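User: quick one, sequence for these tokens?
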């Protein structure tokens, strides 16, 4: 990939992450002020914006918009290690930009849609690990082979984010994304629980990489030495 092409990717990652924060946490702030969306509406906003980002920016950068996703794709052998740092930097810059935009419409004292534990750090960490594990496993499975960059993949990933935010949002914020949590935390100056939303997603998504490898089909050989099943298709690019 040329330097120019990499710059395009980084711009797409920064822009996509900014849009994720602007519409996702923006929905939380709007509901905080107007009560017009409700929890279900905020969860829907996150799922829908993820779908839009994947369809709009996926062909350019892969639409990771999530440092944990980038690290997991690298661990899975589907993303070059030399680009992990630049991607993560672009995502964090985008998150700060998105949270800065949300701050323009937020009421004084707002936490800008920050993710916070409802019942202590232990539960939040466990939930973030599980939610991130399942999200990344879905991503790995639907971005391989014929599904890669297709509408079905975007719909499935967006629906997964929507479902997880709908069910677990009231308990832990359902971040699954260090950039999504660090943006509001840094801009609002509320960093006490931010470590949960870095460790949980990264650990959960790395576990998903291991689980995906276990789920890969292997060539089976019958007693006569004849292959009876073919392996899964090759991995797609992140």
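Assistant:
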């Amino acid at each position: 990939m040329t330097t120019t092409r990499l710059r395009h990717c980084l711009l797409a990652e920064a822009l996509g992450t900014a849009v994720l924060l602007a519409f996702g946490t923006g929905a939380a702030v709007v509901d905080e002020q107007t009560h017009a969306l409700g929890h279900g509406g905020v969860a829907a906003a996150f799922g829908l914006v993820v779908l839009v980002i994947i369809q709009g920016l996926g062909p350019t950068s892969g639409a990771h918009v999530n440092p944990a996703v980038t690290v997991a794709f690298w661990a899975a052998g589907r993303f070059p290690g030399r680009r992990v740092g630049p991607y993560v930097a672009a995502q964090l810059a985008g998150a700060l930009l998105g949270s800065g935009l949300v701050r323009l419409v937020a009421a004084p004292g707002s936490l800008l849609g920050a993710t916070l534990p409802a019942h202590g750090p232990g539960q939040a960490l466990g939930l973030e690990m599980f939610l991130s594990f399942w999200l990344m496993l879905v991503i790995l499975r639907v971005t391989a082979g014929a599904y890669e960059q297709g509408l079905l993949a975007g719909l499935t990933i967006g629906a997964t984010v929507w479902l997880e935010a709908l069910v677990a949002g009231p308990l832990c914020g359902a971040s699954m994304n260090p950039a999504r949590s660090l943006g509001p935390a840094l801009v609002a100056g509320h960093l006490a629980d931010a470590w949960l939303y870095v460790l949980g997603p990264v650990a959960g998504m790395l576990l998903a990489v291991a689980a995906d490898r276990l789920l890969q089909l292997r060539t089976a050989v019958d007693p006569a030495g004849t292959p009876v099943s073919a392996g899964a298709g090759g991995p797609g690019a992140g």
